[in-house]
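Backbones bend. Our protein:
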Amino acid sequence: MRIEAVPGDITTQRVDAVVNAANSSLLGGGGVDGAIHAAAGPALLAECRALRRDVLPGGLPAGEAVATGAGELAATWVIHTVGPNRHAGQADPAVLASCFTRSLDVAAHVGARSVAFPAVSAGAYGWDVGEVADVAVGAVHEWRDGRGTGLDLVRFVLVGAAALRAFEEVLARGD
């Protein structure tokens, strides 16, 4: 499984699944979540509303993941995960790691071969991007080594030079 970090817009990635750094409502928001919902169009919101009504009436908990179709995105699936919000006192790296491993579990379950991740919980949720990079890359390696694979590519799609540099540095270490 190849793991890479690239600059760019996650909504334009040609992968099987893009991961949405969602809020627990799954109904859209700001940042990556808002961009994915806007680019995917109304079909994504309709699927998320159905999930909330039928499966997740209380919302998606932090560290968990669920898949929907991708609407108008180039991807086939959107995998929604809710990162821990450091501003709200959610500072457990294990919950952050779970966002990545549970997303990979869901991706493998739906048959995805390639997945694009944002820097979940960096930005609006207050986590340092360097810490997110350490946790994210470590979680992907752990998943690959412990649960098998089925995936050919995990791509971290990053906005800004600092985020890209943080992920590239962790990947270069080969942890």
Remarks:
- DSSP finds five helices and six strands in the chain.
- Helices lie at 31-40, 42-54, 93-110, 129-147, 161-173.
- The longest helix spans residues 129-147.
